[in-house]
Each structure stands twice: as structure tokens, then as C-alpha cells.
Design brief:
594 residues; alpha/beta; 3 domains; nine-stranded mixed sheet; five-stranded mixed sheet; disordered C terminus
């Protein structure tokens, strides 16, 4: 465990930026008295010694007070449980992890009720510290059942180790963190919920990760590990992530086989915009030659089958939705994005000041997703939507006094990516974001360049709703003609710079809406100029292909709930600690009880 330095005992020469000084914890035992190993980060209120790993926090008391308000802290008398049984120590040694590593990480042993076993059993305990504070405890039984402290604070395991680090390793489990420590890598954290990604622990860990320059994603080498690795890279920014490629299943398996020191260096960069050699992309070339053109993204429901033949989108693209006012471009865009959320397990954030208040806008999205007007829905139906929308739908709004300009909006989107793992951003509409440029045309070009770069660098999709400024009337019918991307906001850059675009055009007399492909960047995404016809359901705001029947079922009607293997429980009576870790020698390694 880290030593801690009382902030008030440090003698600062500065009040901002960073400064270095000798560490009061290790200075007396060091021969090099000139080495100022303690670095003070004044902006963040954090101090770290890069020789003995001692830490200091300016706001430690404030953080403790806030944590106690929002969470239930485990007993801080954790030191009473650090005595480890011989069987547990031997089990870890069989996995290549020595007892000094267990002691360094304050791994303990304790009886705890395991709900999946319906009884109290002995557990190895991984103690989660934030500063000096014990904020959570994770219990693992001999047969690999898990539980955590009731209402503990969700945070990455071993978060103290990465303070002030430029590089951080992210593992799938605590044992993998211990495995990296065994080969001398201390700057490693693990997900508290295994191969599962959720917002809560990222939000609580964000302030310790925001300045990291490089992340090495060291999750398991299997389907779930690869899936969560993709989500982590998406959340943290693929440009600063590399994937560790283990020989075996995970870091611990490679530690046991004796190759971890080599495989931890075997990394692969995530594809982002930049400069690459042919060798960098050769794997993708072979995949393309073998499997054909990549799959594009489009709603999977029958309602969209006609449009799917002529239009689709891709990650890293800026997609412009345009149309005459009151023709439904916002409504259609929302319905399209809601389907992508459901069909691809994505998350979306809407910036839509045109549709304030936010509560009313949520009812609009809820009505589409539920298939029933949320005002007329039952309490059960409303709660179904709320449960589905949680950690899928996010709303962006400028706080009081905040100017909603493009710089603010993109900074907000960047923060949302890390905190919430957003895949899709919806901006409705272009003219609701302030353009701080004296020359409007140059400003439009500058912002569109930023938006396309943001989408590419972060591998996200941006749907931009934009009104046309030029609307032409047909001389014969006196009806407005369908606008093109050249008609948007008075700049040809909306056609030239965006990747994809479509027009929503409503025929009021015929009761149908036409969606036209105005642009798709890749030829295999669709056919430019082609259209698909839809009917609009006034009852729930949904669109459906004219050749299909309307569907009023919830978007999630055929989804299966996933089992959450982590539970919050209370401690029940103790059991015999020594007996719980008897290890039958005949059992193979993977089946060995923990």
C-alpha cells in the first residue's frame, strides 16, 4: 500500500502548474539527496513520489465527505483481515504471484455471504482504495463467485497507482493487475466488473485518467475481452490506445507460462486517422480480400428495408440530415438513431436546443422507442423505457451562462466519450450553435473540418441536422423542391466536406415521406439520388416503409435481459478460513478452486 503525505506539511514555492521537491517519506533513506522525486500537480491537488510511490491529496477530507454522502464505505478496519492462510498464499504462488505482491496490494481473506451459493463462504478480498480511503471490497470465492460491498463506490481497481502516469495498463481482472506487478509493472488498473463496461466506475476514475497519454488495453484474449477492449478504446480515444496481444487467455496465464514479460510488449495500435505503412494495415487488407467489403451500419428492422438498399452509414462519418422546415428531418433522424442504439448496442447523445425543455424531448424519444405515447403509457411501460434508456440515451445542454459555441460543444462531446462511451452524437440543429467567425463561409468550413476530424479520430458518428437556406419552388406545382446539400446554410462545404447526407421530404397530400440519399462517401454504402418512401405514424412518431405494416412494439421487445453476476450484500457470520482453500492436487490448473 502507498505511504501518504499530509498536504499541509509540504512547503510549496508555487501555487499553480507543477513543482518538484524531496519526498519526506523516503528522503532520509536515500543516498541521492539532490533527487527531487516528489512531483506536485497543483491544478489537480495531487502529489506523487516517483521513487517510493508516496501520495498526497489536497482535498482528501473533502473527497471523503463526498464519498460518505453518496456511498456506503466498508469498515476502515481492513488491516484486521490481512492475515492470509497458507492455502491461499500457495494458490497465488501456483499462479505465479508471490506473497509480497499480495501484501503490497493489501489483498485480504474474509468470510462473506455469496448470494449465488446462498451461504457464507471464505473469500479472497480485493480492497479498492482511493487515496487512503477504502471505498469498495470485491469478494471472490473458491469456486469463482463474486460479490461486492453493499453500495460501495465503483472505481477502477488500483487507481492510486496511475496518478501522475503518462502510460496506464487496463486489465479485465484484479489477478491480472497482480500479475503485471509481479513483473514490475505497477501502473495497472482493472475493471471492477470483469468484461463489462458501465459508466459509473469510469465517471469516478476520470480525474485520474484524463491526462494519460497512452493506454495499453490488456483485457482477456477471448470474445468478451475483445468486445470490452473495443468499448474501452472507444471511450478513451482510439488514438491513445494500444491492444496487448497475449499468447494465452490473459496476463496471469502468460505469467504462469513464463512469457508475460515478452507478450506485454506485443501490442497493436487501434486504427485511427493518421499515417500508416502498408504493413500497419496489411491485416485489414487480407480481411477485406477474404471477406469482401466491410459491413455498413443501418437499422435492422423491416420498417427500413427500402432505405437500407440505397443508404447506410459508417463509424467515423459526419452525416447531414436536411429538409424543408416541418417536413420531419428531426423526427426521422431521432427514429433512425434510436434504432441504431437498439440494433448495435450503441449509446447516443443529443444536443437539441430546438426541443427544450429536455423533459419534453425525452417524452418524444420515449414515445418512439416504446411505440406508445408516453403520456398515455402505463407506469410499467414508462419504467420499461426508463430502464432501456439508462446508459443508452444522454442529453447535452449548455448550463446557465454558457455560450453554446462549437468549441464548447466538441469539448463536451470529448468528455462524454470518456465518461459515458458515446458512439453517436446528434446536433439539432446547425444554426443553434454559435459560430464565432467574422467570415461566415470560412467559419462553416472550419467547423465542418473539425466535425469530420472529430468523427474520424474518435470513431464515432455525428448526425447534424441542418436547415436549407435556399428553397426553390417548382413553377408548375408551386411546391418547394427537395433541397440538396448544396442548399444548406449557404455553403457548398455541406456537400463537399460531409461523408453522408439525406433529405427528408414530406408529401402532405399523399401522406407519405420520401428519404433521398444525397451523398454516401463509399460506393458500397448506397446509391446517391435514390429514394425510399415511408408512412409516418402520428400516434408514436415512427416511420415505416410503405410496403410494410406499422409496428407499435417497443424497440427492445425481442431482447433478452443479461444476467448481472455482481451483487451487493451484507456480511454474514464467519466460516473457517483455512479449510476454504484446501486444494485437491488432482485438479487441473483451470479447475483449481479459489
Amino acid at each position: 500500500m502507498n505511504n501518504f503525505i499530509e498536504w499541509s506539511t509540504l512547503e510549496f514555492r508555487k501555487s499553480s502548474g507543477t513543482e518538484k521537491m524531496r519526498c519526506p517519506k523516503c528522503d532520509s533513506v536515500r543516498s541521492d539527496k539532490k533527487d527531487k522525486s516528489l512531483v506536485i500537480y497543483h491544478k489537480d491537488g495531487v502529489a506523487k513520489c516517483f521513487y517510493c510511490d508516496a501520495l498526497g491529496f489536497r482535498d482528501s477530507k473533502k473527497n471523503e465527505r463526498e464519498t460518505k454522502v453518496n456511498y456506503t464505505l466498508p469498515s476502515q478496519e481492513w488491516r484486521n483481515y490481512t492475515k492470509l492462510s497458507d492455502n491461499l498464499v500457495k494458490w497465488f504462488e501456483n499462479r505465479g504471484i508471490k506473497q509480497y505482491v499480495l501484501n503490497d496490494f493489501c489483498v485480504s481473506e474474509e468470510a462473506m455471504y455469496q448470494p449465488q451459493l446462498n451461504k457464507s463462504v471464505n473469500n479472497v478480498v480485493f480492497n479498492y482504495f482511493e487515496g487512503e480511503l477504502l471505498v469498495n471490497k470485491k469478494y471472490r470465492s473458491a469456486n469463482k463467485k463474486f460479490t461486492q460491498s453493499k453500495n460501495g463506490k465503483p472505481i477502477l481497481y488500483n487507481i492510486n497507482s496511475v496518478i501522475g502516469c503518462d502510460e496506464v495498463y487496463i486489465c479485465e481482472g484484479e489477478i491480472d493487475v497482480l500479475s503485471l506487478a509481479q513483473i514490475g509493472i505497477k501502473n495497472a488498473v482493472s475493471l471492477p466488473t470483469g468484461a463489462n463496461d458501465n459508466d459509473a466506475f469510469w465517471i469516478n476514475s476520470e480525474k485520474y485518467l484524463k491526462d494519460v497519454k497512452k493506454f495499453y488495453i490488456a483485457t482477456d484474449n477471448d470474445e468478451k475481452g475483445n468486445e470490452v477492449a473495443e468499448k474501452i478504446a472507444q471511450r478513451l480515444g482510439r488514438y491513445r490506445c494500444e491492444r496487448v496481444l497475449f499468447n494465452g487467455k490473459d496476463a496471469n496465464e502468460d505469467l504462469v507460462s513464463g512469457c508475460l514479460e515478452e507478450t506485454i510488449l506485443n501490442t497493436e495500435k487501434y486504427p485511427v486517422s493518421g499515417t500508416y505503412s502498408v504493413d500497419d494495415v496489411w491485416g485489414d487488407v487480407l480481411d477485406l480480400l477474404k471477406n469482401g467489403i466491410p459491413e455498413t451500419i443501418k437499422p435492422k428492422g423491416e420498417w427500413c428495408k427500402g432505405l437500407n438498399d440505397i443508404f447506410s452509414v459508417m463509424r467515423g462519418h459526419l452525416i447531414v440530415s436536411t429538409g424543408i422546415p416541418s417536413h420531419g428531418k428531426s423526427n426521422f433522424t431521432d427514429w433512425y438513431v434510436l434504432n441504431l442504439i437498439q440494433d448495435y448496442g450503441m449509446k447516443a447523445s443529443w444536443f437539441s436546443p430546438e426541443h427544450n425543455p429536455m423533459s419534453l424531448y425525452v417524452t418524444n424519444l420515449g414515445t418512439k422507442a416504446l411505440g406508445t405515447n408516453l403520456f398515455k403509457a402505463t407506469d410499467k411501460q414508462r419504467n420499461e423505457f426508463k430502464d432501456w434508456a439508462t446508459e443508452k440515451i444522454y442529453l447535452t445542454n449548455a448550463d446557465s451562462g454558457q455560450e453554446p459555441n462549437w468549441e464548447w460543444l466538441l469539448d463536451t462531446f470529448q468528455n462524454q466519450m470518456m465518461r459515458y462511451g458515446i458512439d453517436i452524437f446528434v446536433i439539432d440543429a446547425w444554426n443553434k450553435v454559435i459560430l464565432n467567425d467574422k467570415n461566415e463561409l470560412q467559419g462553416i468550413r472550419r467547423v465542418l473540418t473539425k466535425l469530420t476530424a472529430f468523427a474520424q479520430q474518435n470513431n464515432v458518428m455525428i448526425f447534424l441536422v441542418a436547415h436549407p437556406t435556399k428553397m426553390k419552388k417548382n413553377e408548375k406545382t408551386q411546391e418547394y423542391e427537395q433541397p440538396t446539400l448544396y442548399d444548406v446554410a449557404g455553403s457548398a462545404d455541406f456537400r463537399n466536406q460531409t461523408h453522408d447526407g439525406f433529405c427528408v421530404y414530406r408529401y402532405f397530400n399523399e401522406g407519405k415521406t420520401t428519404i433521398t440519399n444525397l451523398k454516401t462517401k463509399m460506393s458500397f454504402q448506397g446509391e446517391i439520388g435514390k429514394s425510399a418512401d415511408f408512412y409516418y405514424n402520428l400516434d408514436n412518431g415512427r416511420y415505416f416503409d410503405c410496403s410494410t405494416q406499422k409496428n407499435n412494439l417497443p424497440l427492445w421487445h425481442d431482447s433478452k435481459p443479461t444476467e448481472n453476476k455482481y451483487f451487493n450484500t451484507n456480511v454474514l457470520p464467519n466460516v473457517n478460513l483455512q479449510d476454504a482453500f484446501d486444494i485437491p492436487e488432482a485438479l487441473p490448473f483451470e479447475d483449481c478452486p479459489f
